Here is the input.
Amino acid sequence: MLTDDVPLTDHHCHGVVAGDLDLPHFEELLSEGPRGTFESSIGLAVRRWCAPVLDLPPHTEADDYLARRAELGWREVSARLLRAAGTTRWFLDTGFGSNDLADFAALADGEVGEVVRLEQVAEEVIAEIGMPATLFEHVEAALRERAGHAVGLKTVVAYRCGLDFPLVHTSPAAPEPRLTDPDMLGTLVGLGARLGAELGLPLQFHTGFGDTDLRLARADPLLLTDFLRSTADTGLTVVLLHCWPFHRNAAYLAHAYPHVLIDVGLAIPYVGHRSSAVLAETLELAPFRSLCYSSDGYGLPELHYLGAKLWRRGLGLLLDEWLAADAITVADAERLVAAVAHGNAQHHYPPLPHHRPTSGTHSG
Amino acid sequence: MLTDDVPLTDHHCHGVVAGDLDLPHFEELLSEGPRGTFESSIGLAVRRWCAPVLDLPPHTEADDYLARRAELGWREVSARLLRAAGTTRWFLDTGFGSNDLADFAALADGEVGEVVRLEQVAEEVIAEIGMPATLFEHVEAALRERAGHAVGLKTVVAYRCGLDFPLVHTSPAAPEPRLTDPDMLGTLVGLGARLGAELGLPLQFHTGFGDTDLRLARADPLLLTDFLRSTADTGLTVVLLHCWPFHRNAAYLAHAYPHVLIDVGLAIPYVGHRSSAVLAETLELAPFRSLCYSSDGYGLPELHYLGAKLWRRGLGLLLDEWLAADAITVADAERLVAAVAHGNAQHHYPPLPHHRPTSGTHSG
Amino acid sequence: MLTDDVPLTDHHCHGVVAGDLDLPHFEELLSEGPRGTFESSIGLAVRRWCAPVLDLPPHTEADDYLARRAELGWREVSARLLRAAGTTRWFLDTGFGSNDLADFAALADGEVGEVVRLEQVAEEVIAEIGMPATLFEHVEAALRERAGHAVGLKTVVAYRCGLDFPLVHTSPAAPEPRLTDPDMLGTLVGLGARLGAELGLPLQFHTGFGDTDLRLARADPLLLTDFLRSTADTGLTVVLLHCWPFHRNAAYLAHAYPHVLIDVGLAIPYVGHRSSAVLAETLELAPFRSLCYSSDGYGLPELHYLGAKLWRRGLGLLLDEWLAADAITVADAERLVAAVAHGNAQHHYPPLPHHRPTSGTHSG
Here is the structure.
């Protein structure tokens, strides 16, 4: 398969849980909801594809899989799965969960870059200084400092007030521990867009499905249309993450707005055997220059591995079909694979500043 | 095919027309709109799959099909088609159309349970007593009585004010023959949710496509997000019916909210040869524990039969493909089939109270 | 393939650029956005399918393709591609771009009909007489004159205020060079609907994806539900153009409302190899009587040709699969092909009034 050996840049993922997991906790992390289950497409995929990485036969039952996982220990399991992904560069969103970048780099034996989450920085500043009239000056200063060693910015405004946030600049309202005020969020995203354009850092948006903290209808990337128009000529690169089940909408935006990158990150491990179909729908309209790879792996290194494995498999099957139908040449297919695997990310993200496997620890 | 012989629980359907039909009336019932046609996916499916049940060759022309139907008579036709479905338990929504449960049980040679429609009960109460301040006490009493021999509740609030009904408790407004006031409907659905949780009766929602009385955009199950959050820990089981073309949205809700069941009922007979594709999209994210089978058969026993036949065929083809791709084992596939065919319904619905084939008549 | 030789009626397209194009301008026209690219599904399709029409091998590189194009000259290129489409009747929307119908007819060696754009006529009238209280009387007069030699009407209200325009009759507001006032647009579309019903001219709506002037979420055909209800019994034929990514929503509307025709025009050339999948999704619910063919070709004759080629190929592959699965007979499949290729258009549009290849020039 054309996609077997191409090195991947995982431009959006998270750290792994530093500890062993029993079945209920493992299944919980196998879902965006509170009660995941092996009885799902992603559960089948874990048993089919991850089991062999742990020296088990394909389709090993869940209990046996968890037993072997405990036997090897989380460090060995994580190292095996992360390295089996064939990913050479990992961009970690440090806004949520454990974030020891150096340790992740050591486990994965790869380069690691940091993606800074706007809301997390703003909430840290608010926790420290409250909400003075100068709040956003302080937020900007904090963001600039964090951006100095980052490869990208990220916003989860989709979770807070939806992607149809106002395009306004506001002064602070009453303090809140968790930023949910639409005007404040609009200002924050606007600040992120300005800094991203100035510093050459792509701004990632969570779009599409996620956990129960989300109203999915408010996470349709089409709600970003006004924002995309307003940033089209500023030099900013906007990245739409995940997108499912709105991946065709996202593909349209990437088609219409050249400063838009998209991925179907999170969806790939979750949809299992269907990864090929989801990629096919995305490539209907998305220019090949606009699609990136990511796993959105979080907590379980299985997710990082499945993201890579099912992306390779899904895109590989798709291109096999296109080749068999004489819809593309091998040379063009190879070019497409390289662009999506790492080329497009390389083109839009800055070079990795540090966090080589041997560098010091950073906790975001 | 793995799905050929599994017994089905049809957890949402309706009665059949007790009489013979000419071509225009048959085609009318072959559509959610006012003018159905054999020249459609469902029309092809009737000719392909139902004709042999009536001893005709596959693909028999519409006129010949109707002639044979008349020759056999509606009772014989209904008995043949209902029995050919391989469905052993039928849950009939008695809120609309003819509802002789005992006769249906006799025709189908199966067990029959009743699903009580909230709006129908409320409108009966209003017709009788008007709209006193105590209206909802009377509605509750009527619902409790009906619920005593039912297996589930159902709401068509999607048709009345949309699935984004208010989560409020209100006092009655001015009387109306047909309940469309959003506050009243919100109160009614809230009452249904409370009774469903208390009595262990799943609450079914019409979602997705239906007849021209519907604004399809108001029937997107994502509009239920707040309702699902508010009922997540109450013990209620919420059932999203039909869902097409929002079946991926529904699958996300089933993934995120463990108290949600879904089906693609009505869509399966309508999309004909495409049933496999629709099921594949649904299973991308829906846990296998959450998917149920239904036909939503209404009027024509052809719909009950095609629901079963095309579900068997669609899921069978899908699993054949997964097996061929080594994405699932035979044992896991069999478990999935049994869960969707009847296991999940059995787990969430109460046992059938009565309405055995030989029991008395109930008219809802 | 069953679809190879059926003559097509292209019921919605535009003229071609009368001049040679360099790579940037060609790529610009290969996209609805400002920066198209050969590195996309449509780019692959141009190289695969159009190159042989210009005597080049399949998959010719973009530079070589453009060189050959320049060598042959735009007239020869256009004549070859338009004639290779196998389209015998072309309905041109003259509301945008170059519109020499007679020259197009000569190039294409086919019959040409005109589709009149409501907004263009209204804006011409406003430019001439401003906004007197009698404005819509003048607009109606102008529309009647234009309608006299037209085969259909078209509205781009999706671009102006969205498909949820108000169903009102209003008096003129302040003048504006480009009609964007929702009340005015609602009145204009209402006028178009009345004239269309009276004169037997189908009213086409742009729906679904388009250029960056569009908010895609406002172009969901489901937003037309009230309009469809209000026109269901007036004799008007409503045509939903393009529809992607809302083609399943459009299929539902065609299923529910017998006066609705749909196509997936623009989407077919853009999605390239995926045309079969998009048609399959559309045919899930759309009655075969409701689907029409169009290319929405604009600027590049490659789009007119690819519209036809990929429609033939996509529907052909789909029907091959249905035939292999015994889901349809050859006779039924041929009937379906003829209906979609030209029969449905022939049934709903008036006969071509003039604009035979040898007729005089009309500039719209």
Q: What stands out?
A: Confidence is low (pLDDT under 50) at residues 355-364 of chain B. Chain B is about 45% helix and 10% strand.
